[in-house]
Amino acid sequence: MRVLTGAGTSHVVGIPDNSSAGLFDALAGHSAIALVRVSREGEAMAVAAGLWLGGARPLVVIQNTGLLESGDALRGTLARMAAPVPILVTARGYGKMSAAGLIPAPRPPRDLLVRPDVDSVALLTEPTLDAWGIPFRRWDGGEVEVLADFLSSVEAGGWPAALIFTGTVTAS
Amino acid sequence: MAGRPDLHGDGDRLMMTTLELLEPLARRRGDQVVVTTMSVTRPWGRLSDHDLDFASADSAMGHAADLALGIALARPERRVVCLNGDGSMLMTLGTLATVAGSGAENFILVVVDNAGYEITGGQPVAGVSVDYAAMAKGAGIPRTLTVTSAREWDEALDHVLGSSGPTLIHARVALGDEGPISRSAREEARYLRTSLAEWSASLRECLTRGAG
To answer: In this predicted complex, what is the ipTM?
Structure first.
């Protein structure tokens, strides 16, 4: 929260999952950052685009499954408008992917996409962002400076970008 | 429209035209932000040449209403009107709940319901006769209104523009014959003669000028 307020974040727009639930809980009734709950992840991109048009500094927070759902909204709003909005993507399936000794790669083979011990969304998240032209980096939640640097770099870069968050937000 | 199917099932020729919907709004919108999409984009651009117009064209279909909501949340001192299509609204019905939950009192969402996909030739949308006002009410939007005639709209407009929302207007109009929307120098409307990125930067500058 300190990093978000320090970066001037005005709104958090998104849908919680188990990793980000703590952030949404902390934002409920927050005095400086408004929480905008949306019904589907694509909406988060468009609402954030509108917030940016109005001079606000939104942060989108969605799970990687929802990121895949929101493809056309991200392409057609934030990217098409060249709106430098940061997107925090919580990373479902990254633990299983790591345990299986796998890494994301373009065009994963079908046998990987159906393996019960692998969550296919983890394999597809980074190649999809790459294909969409959205810069990204990973963050395990350890050093908050990573988040601060990400937020400032998106603003300076003039383009939406994603931070793939493999950790869990805690109340502290 | 002659030769067009009667998509509403009640005589399109008796219904308000898109132009009859847009003209009074263009005259009375003042300094409100107006977001357009799909088949109203070009006719609105013929009636209005305003820096606070925004065409959600060459964008993402179904996301004009949520984009407009974002503007309304960022600029609570300014009213934002979104002229959405019924086909677009059906793509993101969850936005009705999002609008209700946002509590954006300065947001007016107009569903311009011609019952078809006008810019692709008028194919019918899914659903026989969708009641968007009832959907909005059910989603928790406090102010809803259905208008089917130019007279009803003209009489209601000042109240709509002057009241706290969020508000949803279900405007049933006859199917027109607007073709596909483009962004190019050949377009008559100023907001379609530039890229989405360029117009976005311009609108942002306009909305934030003088803001702290």
So the answer is: 0.96
